[in-house]
Design goal:
Helix content: 25-40%
Distance between the termini: 81 Å
CATH architecture of the largest domain: Distorted Sandwich
Number of domains: 2
Strand content: 25-35%
Radius of gyration: 29 Å
Structural class: alpha+beta
Length: about 700
């Protein structure tokens, strides 16, 4: 009988201890991650620097009364304690189990509990503080000598006073849930771990609130585009937690893993050029030094966590890593694609030679925010701004020297001095007719702008070798001249200009009324009609403080800048230019735009044909008809569309509703090869309103 009982006990033992085994596995993974981030040399330096603590457990150089929203000084106290706890707990470290370090940690934790420093920024109090406390307590719980039980108890209680994840969304929910994971591991609480994991993984689902959107863009702080910034926090945090939990009963399910992978591999990584991020996606973080530099992500925890979570992604991840780290060129294994994010008001156009991305804003989305003294000058950032890159670093750290009313791609007032962004934390756009059409390879984008006393209808038409940029109906009664900026990037080599079919190298700045083309940094800019264009290649300088009150230092350097001047009080002004990236100096002088025809550029219709690709793209602001070389396209409602294979008997149509209000639109097409076809196309409803509909017409 005893033998039977013994075997029954053995049979059920694994199931009885599964939860605790899983908790132990997760705890060991987190500890290893913490240990790996600081080598023994760094830990020794930290010990020697921070071991001399005051008798009350404080450090004399830290201002514990500081309550700043950003760069909050007291958090340095917990940073130091984490380093000391790492040295104390790390296996084989020379300070492992050191009594002096132990006493320092205990005194430091006791001081923190009594003092309870507070920031005016809830994030510092409820996320940064609780996560640091969690890591310190976790390290000490795994050491040879844990902190006194009563001290641990009150500190865990302090962590519990922070806001829970339940009412939060997106990256903020995740960050709070991570603190819950730490607490569950410290207390070996399976029930709490289940709650923490559920909350941590909940943001990996489509939402119409803050978080991951149905188009795989990311929004935070209401409907504000945050593919990097908060999107990066979401991405790294979710993969980090998923790696911790891999192979345990708490592991991320396959459906959510697929969604997370789609966000990284299809959205985030495609917004990178080499190791640099599109500045349009950093939110107010655009005003932070090196914000665009992501070269570190391949060497850090993110790529490691992705592989720990999903080993099938090794090959794809290695390709991205080669580009990000600079082992291979920014063009290495880049696949052509065109994505329009109808929820994010954002266009991603990628080719091996270049990326050309556009940020816009509508009544459905929020303009780039200012807050915590950051992004002080970003008034016109989302107004059709263009990220045009080949290497990726064309805009790296240029922000302090930017002329901020001349953001690349933007039509705005030419202010004499920089204008501070008046409304913090973002405001909604002012127009509805903002959207794009795509077949995943080509597409067009429209932005009907009405902001800061500037009205304009802006359209972008995307092909393989060129992008056509059109503006119509430019109106303003502001006291400043109105300008459209073509580019403002770091100067990289000589600038060639061609006017009246005469080519010369630019010196500093020139104004042209008959400019044919400009070439700089392997990019050609072509002007199909006479326009008043300024081209500049001069040194600019500026301070980080001017755009971010939390930063110091200056930047200076040669800047390439080009803009169209529409004059003062334009009534119905327009612009036309074509961008051809990835061409040589010699190629610039040849006609690179013969295959492109601008069919219309007015307030009712903007349209372009790419004759070599057999593509027509059109923005119908009103019901209307387009006629060109025997081809007729008629729309009974405002829309944006693309026709491919217009020379064949089967035509590929892609169509979308920028305003996201229509139930359907009727299109009539007549080509030399296709007899007149009239069809009514049903359009997607929210949350897919604005998504392109594709069909073949025979």
């Amino acid at each position: 009988m005893k033998t039977i009982i013994f075997y029954i006990s053995i049979l059920f033992l694994p199931f009885a201890i599964t939860a605790q085994d899983d908790l132990s596995v997760i705890k060991s993974r987190i500890l290893k991650e913490i240990f790996d981030k600081s080598n023994d040399v760094q830990l020794t330096k930290a010990v020697l620097t921070f071991k001399n603590i005051n008798s009350d457990g404080s450090w004399p150089e830290i201002n514990y009364d500081d309550n700043s929203a950003s760069n909050w000084l007291p958090i340095k106290h917990l940073e130091r304690l984490q380093m000391l706890a790492s040295a104390f707990a790390k296996p084989n470290n020379v300070y492992k189990g050191n009594d002096e370090i132990y006493q320092t940690i205990v005194k430091g934790l006791h001081f923190w509990y009594v003092k309870n420093p507070r920031s005016t920024n809830w994030w510092q109090n409820d996320i940064a503080t609780t996560q640091y406390l969690g890591r310190v307590l976790l390290l000490m719980s795994a050491s040879e000598r844990n902190i006194p039980e009563d001290l641990q108890k009150v500190l865990i209680g302090r962590m519990q006073t922070a806001q829970g994840p339940f009412t939060f969304t997106g990256a903020n929910k995740l960050d709070i849930a991570i603190a819950y994971i730490y607490r569950a591991l410290i207390t070996n609480n399976d029930k709490l771990m289940n709650i923490a994991v559920m909350e941590a993984f909940q943001p990996i689902e489509f939402t119409t609130a803050e978080g991951l959107q149905h188009d795989y863009s990311y929004q935070q702080h209401k409907e504000q585009l945050m593919i990097s910034a908060y999107g990066y926090v979401f991405l790294t945090g979710e993969y980090q937690v998923a790696a911790w939990l891999a192979g345990t009963k708490y592991a991320l399910d396959n459906q959510k893993l697929t969604s997370l992978n789609n966000y990284f591999f299809n959205t985030y990584s495609n917004a990178l050029r080499g190791g640099y991020m599109d500045y349009n996606l950093e939110g107010r973080g655009i005003s932070r030094p090196k914000a665009l530099d992501k070269t570190r992500i391949a060497d850090g925890g993110l790529f490691k966590d992705i592989l720990q979570t999903d080993k099938t992604k090794k090959e794809a991840l290695n390709i991205i890593a080669d580009r990000v780290t600079g082992k291979k060129s920014a063009s290495f294994d880049v696949k052509p694609l065109h994505i329009y994010f109808w929820k994010g008001d954002y266009t991603l156009h990628v080719r091996p030679k270049y990326s050309f991305n556009v940020r816009t804003v509508s009544k459905r989305t929020v303009r780039t925010e200012s807050g915590n003294k950051e992004n002080l000058l970003g008034t016109v950032l989302p107004d059709g701004s263009v990220n045009l890159v080949r290497r990726g670093n064309e805009y790296l750290n240029i922000m302090p020297v930017w002329e901020w009313d001349k953001i690349p791609g933007v039509t705005a007032r030419d202010y004499d001095t920089a204008v501070i962004l008046k409304k913090q934390w973002g405001e909604y756009g002012s127009t509805d007719f903002v959207g794009g059409v795509t077949d995943s390879l080509y597409g067009a984008t429209v932005y009907e702008q009405d902001y800061d006393n500037v009205k304009v209808k802006k359209a972008y038409f995307f092909f393989d070798n060129e992008i056509v940029c059109l503006g119509a109906g430019i109106k303003s009664n502001a006291p400043q001249n109105i300008t459209t900026t073509i580019n403002q990037a770091w100067n990289n080599g000589k600038v060639l200009t061609s006017s009246n079919n005469k080519t010369f190298q630019l010196k500093k700045q020139s104004e042209f009324s008959d400019l044919n083309w400009v070439w700089h940094d392997s990019i050609g800019y072509y002007f199909p009609k006479p326009q008043n264009v300024f081209v500049s290649s001069q040194q600019q300088s500026g301070s980080w403080t001017s755009i971010n009150g939390n930063q110091k230092g200056t930047e200076k350097g040669m800047v390439f800048k080009m803009w169209i001047d529409h004059g003062r009080n334009p009534v119905s002004a327009s612009y036309e230019y074509i961008v051809v990236p990835g061409i040589s100096e010699k190629e610039a002088s040849s006609n690179n735009i013969d295959g492109t025809a601008i069919l219309s550029n007015n307030e009712s219709l903007q349209a372009v044909a790419q004759k070599d690709l057999k593509i027509i793209q059109a923005v119908f602001y009103t019901p209307g008809e387009l006629s060109w070389q025997g081809i007729k396209i008629k729309a009974d409602k405002p829309c944006i569309l693309q026709i491919r294979d217009f020379d064949k008997s089967t035509v590929k149509l892609s169509i979308a509703d920028p305003a996201q209000k229509l139930e359907d639109v009727t299109i009539t097409i007549n080509t030399p090869e296709l007899k007149e076809k009239k069809l009514t196309i049903g359009l997607p409803k929210a949350p897919y309103g604005g998504q392109s509909v594709a069909l073949e017409i025979k």
